[in-house]
Specification:
The complex is a heterodimer of chains A (419) and B (450).
Chain A: H1 3-14, E1 19-24, E2 29-34, H2 41-55, E3 62-65, E4 77-83, E5 88-95, E6 106-110, E7 113-114, H3 118-124, H4 129-145, H5 150-157, H6 159-178, E8 183-190, E9 196-206, E10 209-215, H7 229-243, H8 252-257, E11 258-261, H9 278-296, E12 312-319, E13 322-329, E14 333-335, H10 338-343, E15 347-355, E16 358-365, E17 371-378, E18 387-389, E19 392-393, E20 400-402, E21 407-413
Parallel strand pairs in A: 10-11
Antiparallel strand pairs in A: 1-2, 1-5, 3-4, 3-6, 4-5, 6-7, 8-9, 9-10, 12-13, 12-17, 13-14, 15-16, 16-21, 17-20, 18-19, 18-21
Helix pairs in contact in A: 2-7, 7-9
Chain B: E1 9-14, E2 18-24, E3 39-44, H1 50-60, E4 68-73, E5 88-93, E6 116-119, H2 125-142, E7 148-151, H3 160-172, E8 176-179, H4 186-213, E9 218-223, E10 226-228, H5 239-250, E11 255-259, E12 264-277, E13 280-291, E14 300-302, E15 308-310, H6 332-335, H7 337-341, H8 344-349, H9 356-372, H10 382-400, E16 406-409, H11 413-417, E17 426-429, H12 433-449
Parallel strand pairs in B: 1-4, 4-9, 5-6, 5-7, 7-8, 11-16, 16-17
Antiparallel strand pairs in B: 1-2, 2-3, 9-10, 11-12, 12-13, 14-15
The chains are: A alpha+beta (419), B alpha/beta (450).
């Protein structure tokens, strides 16, 4: 199998997932896709190491975990690990809002069958049994579909084929690296009075040895906000892959060229037991790294001169066990399942307009069931007039419960597309 | 043409980029009797219009009176890359301007923001008419060709009299009125706006047909599971998918993988109730489908790393592939220049295929592409690209196939079937649109007679 076929096959295998990695037996990243809300390439490698070391998955087994202290992101993002062939493992992440408890590394399927001890306890006794059953069975079904690719999977399992693939990926990265600037730059971001993230980027080439060094040495010691190092590293890796046009080829050769310095017990390296600030810190770190890479590239017209976090928020609205995410940044506003909420008469739109890039939404709660608003990402810099609940600002760090007839109002400005 | 033939119908497949038709006798009572076409023709639409195709068909068959036409189409798919509603007024209450877009602002637009007409809820008939008159005059300055209006007027905010007054006003001003059945349901709003925004394209198709075949011609489109002359415009977006779905049902198949000159996709026997359209989600029951990650009309180009890649831009129907004779851009279709020569349909779409000069031009273009690839280890010749495409399609089929039996269909089907022959789950059929359309038309007629 040549390089193009290998690349195509890896792409096909990962195409049904938004966050997934293929990992070789010795822990090398063969391929990765990272299109989810959270970036998790490094987290998946950490999960692989834990599951491989302690549970040693065989073909037909499926293990899950979501513990943010053990490579996970938060309780809602479940990591699945399975062995695809003797030499290749698949680790993928799927979100399940109904899971609000910690899952340590756990066998869900053994030799193709549901684990008789775990399944009743984890799924059947859960208040959301039907949702969880469908969720886990669907993911197992997606794993089983890979069997159809059997003979092709065998070929990418061969060590020399993997080495040949890595060699070419390294060459492509080398070419892309050579088209970008070398140098050093740094940027600081004050998250609040006590918490500062300082990033220093150094890109260098000496005696044909290329390195990208991301140094967080002067970042504050963990106070209120902090995230695990794999959470930080995943965000950094995606920012670098994006900048060097390597998103489709994100694999071990790229990881090998990036050196990270993360001070212990700092904002960017201390595992958070609930993963509360992972989203905010991934956003901060990846925007800082991209800012530095863009600045270094000397795109004077395109590059901003001062660093500021881009406007963005994420809020979950939970009604009758259905979680509807609201996400906006300066380019888009997305209210998942708004149509459903209106059609099912859970809410009534009082205002729903988009004029000249300004989105204004005012909804009245019709359902007699409680409506929970869970902020996932809200920047400190917002005045919070952008999201009001019954004429009061939304509590940023806690869950708000709405009752029948209460009103939610959102105002958001998009940057108009000048093209 | 023989004297005894009573050819009365046309079976037309109207794709995004090509059309293929057959003229047949629709009066045969025995549907199992496979009658041959009296006339067959296929054209590449950027070079020969539908109107011309039909005119040529009539001219070639002067003794035949064509009574009806049976159409399966995916022509409206070409609208999926466009903003719609350039001549559509959106009449809404204040606070609901572009309400359909709020759930996902990045979707394609279904109505021009400049043509929004905000209607006050507190006006009596006289004041309402006066305001509508003023507003219409203003909107006609924005676009003098506006001729359709979508009324999104909730009954909780407007009286029945007010809604009727607005409707009557636009009818009196020669507008086609589209009423949103559930104005607070944004999927319903999108569906109505899409019907309005697609009206012009449907009218063009109908006008072409009537102009060539006469005003009395009976026009039937495949909608859901039968031919019909009365339908919503949204139905036309799924005419070909639904037709293939009916084929799978008839043949007891669970899945089809379809590869023609413009569309490579998978279709299953299962259905979805939501259409995640480029304009936002719309409630609409349709077969489950998945497009292959590239279209045969995508361009092959070189990226910054010096690798050949498939450009992510929209399919390049105009000027089309090099084999169509006018292009200098290398499209995926050009990779198959030799194989295409043996295909009856494709060689009639691109008659230049037979010329050695075109084959030479294609090969030269691929040599240039090969030399432009700067990394020796990843350099691909035309033949390598062809094999890579076959590998990509084969693995995509295997990854997507579910339990049951699947069939590979379409003009490229035999090429992609090669690596799947040994797998008993797969079969292959040389699918012909006009023949299948004729068969369904006859089955429908037999059903009517029984």
């Amino acid at each position: 199998m040549n390089f193009h076929s290998t690349q195509q096959l890896l792409k096909t295998i990962l195409s049904h997932f938004s966050s997934a990695s293929l990992v070789t037996e010795d822990g090398k990243l063969l391929a990765s896709i990272d299109c989810g809300v959270f970036k998790s390439t490094t987290s998946r490698l950490v999960v692989f190491q834990i599951v491989k070391k302690y549970l040693n998955p065989q073909i037909g087994d499926l293990f899950i975990l979501n513990d943010p202290g053990n490579g996970g992101l938060n309780y809602q993002n479940v990591f699945f690990t399975t062995r695809v062939t003797d030499k290749i493992f698949l680790v993928f992440v799927q979100e399940m809002p109904q899971i609000d408890f910690k899952i340590p590394p756990t066998p869900l399927y053994d030799k193709g069958l549901k684990n008789k001890t775990v399944w009743p306890f984890l799924v059947e006794q859960n208040p959301h049994a039907e949702i969880l059953r469908h969720f886990f069975e669907k993911n197992w079904h997606d794993v089983l579909k890979l069997k159809n690719l059997g003979p092709y999977l065998s070929e990418i399992s061969v060590g020399k084929n993997q080495l040949a693939y890595f060699r070419i990926v390294a060459q492509i990265f080398e070419r892309n690296f050579n088209t970008k600037a070398l140098g050093q730059s740094e940027v600081s971001l004050k998250l609040n009075a006590a918490d500062t993230i300082k990033v220093r980027l150094a890109i260098d080439e000496k005696q044909n040895q290329r390195t990208i060094h991301i140094d967080f040495s002067q970042t504050s010691i963990a106070g209120k906000m902090f995230a695990a190092s794999h959470v930080t590293e995943s965000a950094v890796m995606m920012a670098i892959a994006e900048s060097y046009g390597m998103c489709d080829l994100l694999s071990q050769p790229l990881l090998d060229l990036v050196r990270l310095t993360l001070p212990p017990q700092s904002i960017v390296s201390k595992a958070n037991p609930l993963g509360t600030y992972n989203l905010l810190l991934q956003k901060a770190v990846s925007e800082q790294v991209l800012f530095l890479l863009t600045s270094l590239a000397g795109k004077s017209k395109a590059a901003p001169t001062t660093f500021k976090l881009k406007p963005e928020f994420r809020i979950d609205l939970e009604i009758d066990n259905k979680v509807c995410g609201i996400h906006a940044n300066n380019k888009k506003f997305v209210f998942k399942d708004l149509d459903y909420l209106i059609a099912s008469k859970a809410v009534l739109p009082l205002i729903s307009q988009q004029i000249d890039g300004k989105v204004h939404l005012k909804l009245q709660v019709l359902t007699d069931k409680p409506v929970l608003i869970r902020p996932q990402l809200i920047l400190n810099t917002y005045s919070q007039e952008f999201f009001q609940v019954s004429n009061a600002s939304l509590a940023k760090d806690s869950v708000t419960t709405l009752k029948q007839n209460e009103i939610i109002e959102l105002n958001w400005s998009l940057v108009k597309d000048t093209k | 043409m023989t004297e005894t033939a009573t050819a009365t119908a046309i079976a037309l497949y109207l794709g995004e980029s090509y059309a293929t038709l057959g003229v047949f006798d629709n009066h045969t009572d025995d549907v199992t009797k496979t009658s041959a076409f009296i006339f067959e023709k296929s054209v590449y639409l950027p070079q020969t219009s539908l109107k011309n195709l039909l005119a040529q068909t009539v001219a070639a068959n002067p003794d035949i009176k064509i009574e009806s036409i049976f159409i399966v189409t995916r022509y409206l798919d070409r609208l999926q890359t466009f903003r719609l509603g350039g001549s559509v007024i959106q009449a809404v209450p204040a606070g609901f301007e572009n309400s359909y877009s709020v759930a996902q602002t990045q979707m394609q637009s279904l109505a021009a923001p400049a043509l929004i007409l905000t209607i006050r809820t507190d006006l009596d008939h006289e004041a309402l008419t006066a305001e509508l008159t003023t507003e219409l005059a203003r909107l006609k300055k924005v676009n003098s060709e506006i001729n359709k209006v979508v009324l999104q007027l909730p009954e909780s905010l407007f009286s029945a009299k007010q809604i009727e007054a607005v409707k009557s006003f636009f009818i009196a001003n020669n507008f086609k009125v589209f009423l949103v059945p559930q104005p607070f349901d944004f999927e319903s709003v999108r569906r109505t706006l899409l019907n309005a925004g697609s009206e012009g394209t449907k009218d063009e198709i109908l006008a072409d047909i009537r102009s060539a075949l006469g005003a009395e011609i009976k026009i039937n489109f495949w909608v859901n599971s039968s031919f019909a002359d009365d339908f919503e415009n949204i139905d036309l977006y799924f005419s070909s998918h639904n037709f293939l779905h009916s084929y799978l049902q008839r043949e007891n198949l669970t899945q089809g993988f379809y590869f023609d000159v413009e569309n490579w996709s998978a279709i299953t026997i299962a259905t979805d109730t939501k259409w995640h359209s480029p304009w936002g989600t719309i409630e609409f029951t349709k077969p489950e489908t998945e497009k292959f990650l590239m279209s045969p009309f995508c361009e092959l180009t070189i990226n910054v790393a010096g690798q050949v890649v498939v450009a992510s831009a929209t399919p390049q129907f105009e000027p089309g592939p090099i084999v169509a004779g006018r292009s200098v851009k290398t499209l995926i279709l050009d990779v198959f220049s030799e194989e295409l020569r043996d295909n009856k349909l494709i060689s009639s779409l691109f008659p230049q295929l037979m010329s050695d000069a075109i084959q030479q031009k294609v090969n030269t273009q691929f040599q240039i592409l090969q030399k432009a690839q700067s990394l020796d280890l990843t350099r691909m010749s035309k033949n390598d690209i062809k094999e890579w495409l076959r590998f990509a399609v084969t693995t995509w089929i295997l990854k997507n196939c579910s339990s049951g039996s699947a069939r590979i269909l379409g003009d490229f089907g035999s090429f992609f079937f090669q690596d799947l022959k040994k797998n008993s789950a797969f079969s292959y059929s040389n699918y012909s649109w006009p023949k299948e359309i004729m068969l369904q038309a006859k089955l429908g007629r037999a059903h009517e007679l029984s």
